[in-house]
Design goal:
Elements: E1 4-6, H1 14-20, E2 26-29, H2 35-48, E3 52-56, H3 79-98, E4 103-106, H4 114-129, H5 133-168, E5 173-177, H6 188-197, E6 203-208, H7 209-217, H8 225-230, E7 234-239, E8 241-242, E9 248-250, H9 259-263, E10 271-274, H10 282-293
Parallel strand pairs: 1-2, 1-10, 2-3, 3-4, 4-5, 5-6, 6-7, 7-10
Antiparallel strand pairs: 8-9
Helix pairs in contact: 3-5, 4-5
């Protein structure tokens, strides 16, 4: 099994990148890090001829902030913010092509509504503590209704941005990542609409196993929906495990998911990338890598 590894685990620390590098096949450049970190990564990639399969926007040597940028501005209703996002993603795309990446993984943003976000988080907490089903159903229906009322202009903003970026960088795959929170975009119907409106062959989606499992466990989107509808547009997958409280980005085999079973839904052309949170230590990361390579053997 060929495995890419996201530098998200490094958390801006090059020593962590160097420690894991002998054990994986390629890198995904994660969005967490500042300009200096990305320059050091570029130097390593060029010096050691390290394959880079994907870059997670926003990431490039000119980036000025340390924290990850999850690109909420693609969906912003503020035109100036969207223009700024186009500039940031253009810089990322140019850098990605320069270091040989095949795909740019993007978060398309969220519905900008604090009430919807609070409703969702309250529902999630209620579901985790086992609130009676009748009360949960009422919360669920209200969340779905409010989201449906608010989503359209945000989706249209995303389409506007992608209509500019996809033809500008036609040799790079733009991969819309499945999101973990219900107030984020896209849902499957929204993704289909985006594909219909942005008719460029380099636009597809990036399947995040943990994120789709969270939305499934909370009752919003069955996890097999994405591959049933969009397998032909799937560029890659983020692989990680999840605990019983729906906290994700654990190494495979360290949580409650049957990762090997979930991986069976993907064809041979899908890039598999381990995306592990920095809270996990090196030993658990290595167990996760071994778990995947050992074909169902838990360590």
């Amino acid at each position: 099994m060929k495995l890419a590894f996201s530098t998200a685990w490094a958390d801006g620390n090059m020593d962590r990148v160097c420690a894991v590098l002998p054990h994986i096949d390629s890198l995904e450049i994660g969005s967490k890090g500042d300009g200096r970190f990305f320059q050091e990564l570029e130097d390593l990639v060029r010096k050691e001829n390290v394959p880079v399969t994907s870059v997670h926007a926003i990431a490039y040597p000119g980036k000025s902030v340390q924290d990850a940028d999850y690109a909420p501005r693609l969906a912003s209703l503020d035109r100036q913010l969207r223009r700024r996002e186009i500039d940031e993603m253009s810089s990322t795309a140019e850098w990605a092509l320069g270091i040989g990446a095949r795909a740019l993984v993007i978060h398309t943003g969220k519905i900008e509504d604090d009430e919807l976000k609070e409703m969702y988080l309250d529902y999630k907490q209620s579901a985790l503590i086992g609130m009676p089903s009748e009360a949960l159903e009422e919360q669920f229906e209200e969340i779905v209704r409010r989201r449906a009322e608010l989503s359209k202009p945000h989706v249209e903003s995303i389409i506007e941005v992608l209509d500019i970026l996809c033809p500008r960088y036609a040799e790079l795959d733009f991969s819309i990542e499945t999101r973990v929170n219900y107030y984020e975009i896209p849902l499957p119907d929204e993704l289909e609409f985006i594909f219909q409106e942005v008719s460029y062959p380099n636009l597809g989606y990036w399947h995040d196993i943990g994120h789709t499992c969270v939305l499934d466990r909370l009752g919003f989107v069955p996890m097999n929906t994405w591959q049933q509808r969009f397998a032909h547009r799937c560029h890659g997958a983020h692989v990680h495990d999840m605990d019983r409280s729906l906290l994700d980005h654990y190494p495979p085999g360290e949580g409650v998911l049957d990762i090997h079973c979930l991986l069976e839904q993907f064809g041979p052309g899908v890039l598999l990338t381990l995306e592990i949170n920095a809270r996990n230590d090196f030993e658990s990361v290595m167990r996760g890598i071994h778990y995947l390579r050992a074909d169902r053997i838990r360590v």
